[in-house]
Write a structure and sequence with these properties.
96 residues; mainly alpha; Histone, subunit A; two-stranded antiparallel ribbon; flat
Length: 96
């Protein structure tokens, strides 16, 4: 494995448009080295019998059932509107 150096941290910082001080570059270099060492350690595990998966638990839809119910009263809702036009919220123009 290639050893992570200051140049690598500077390159990643440039791509992320981050300005790092010399001290922060040193810290990030150390952190990245530790992370990559840990990933190497994980790669030593035998995973031949482990099936690839995206989730450890089954994924299911947890949405509530769609039920018909009355909507809110427009005059009640518009009481909190800073500006309104009839039964509509009035908002500032966004596009010129």
């Amino acid at each position: 494995m290639k050893e992570i150096g200051i140049e690598d941290v500077e390159h990643v910082a440039m791509l992320a448009r981050l300005e790092l001080s010399s001290e922060e570059k040193q810290t990030m270099t150390s952190h990245l080295r530790d992370i990559l060492r840990y990933v190497e350690k994980l790669n030593e595990l035998d995973t031949e019998t482990v099936e690839p998966t995206a989730h450890i638990l089954p994924v299911r839809n947890v949405a509530r059932p769609d039920t018909l119910r009355p909507s809110l009263d427009p005059t009640e809702v518009l009481k909190n509107a800073p500006k309104r036009t009839g039964e509509l919220f009035q908002v500032p123009r966004v596009v010129e």
